[in-house]
Known about the structure:
Layout: H1 2-27, H2 33-57, H3 62-92, H4 99-118, H5 127-137, H6 156-167, H7 170-181, H8 185-213, H9 217-236, H10 252-270, H11 279-296, H12 300-329
Helix pairs in contact: 1-2, 1-3, 2-3, 2-8, 2-11, 3-7, 4-8, 5-7, 5-8, 8-9, 8-10, 10-11, 10-12, 11-12
Amino acid sequence: MMIKLVILLVVAFVLPTFLGKIITEIAGIGNEYKTSYLLGIITFLALFYLWIQPDVKNMQSLSDTAHHVMKCFEVLAAITIVGFLVLVNKYKKKKHVIWKEILIVCVVSFLLAGVSVCVKPNVADYTKEMVNTMYMQDTLFNVDPLTGKELADLDAEEQDYLQEFAESPFSVLYAVMVFQTKIIPAKLVSIILPFLIFPFYVCIYLSWGEYLFQTDKGKQIFFEIVVWGLLVMGLLQKWDKIFDIFGNPWNGETLFFLGILPYSVLTFLKMEDCIVEKKYFCVLFIIANCFSAKLMYQYGIFVELFVSIVFLIIVFLRRWYHNGNSYTTA
């Protein structure tokens, strides 16, 4: 069991950080470990969505999908490790101690995940049922997780409901993890996933605090207290599953609205001054965001496209306005 947990930790944290590190070095967009980790996660989720699309559309079995995903992942891991080793000498020259910040993220994430494990899951979330059905029936979205009926035996309304899961197939990621590790689905989702997912949320809101208040640590801490204080309110009231970060942090809609979407907005704001210089990275980032959003939320790709278009329009209007003022002044 310990070996499986170590492997999950490496896959969830180390490899995404290495992948993000390579991307940030190539794009020249910063060297913070949180940026590398978050970018690596978004990239991996986007690739995972592309990997499983043929299997979901062709209604393949979970075992076939898992083998296919693992082949793709092994290639990605090999490329990531080789790429990181090529750049490792460059990293050694940089004197930037981040262990204190990493420890803060680990401690905060551990405490928040501990709270999530102890609270009652949101009754509107059926991720555990879906993952368990996939694993036990060796299928993807051919069996209703609530009734156990096969797709052919469902009426039109029930088929539409099952299709919603297939439109945002984040549960396949967890099912593949279960298939490869042989960990009980309920245990993986309810106990292990919070500890793997909360660092994603924590890094996003820490990055927001740093962006808003720069070097003012006091205001950054106050910002984090306010944010997590508001999210804790979900424990006191019956919130919708989308915002119940402690009741179902693994839910796709929760990951999108409280994770991916805030991160994409933050990244766009950071790129505002260099969007022309980094236009190729910007385009690739938008594509990766759209696919990762689609994995988590049925309409995530449309929301991300809307946000991206609005941001680009605002940036170019501001540049046009400032350039016009400069020309008039001259």
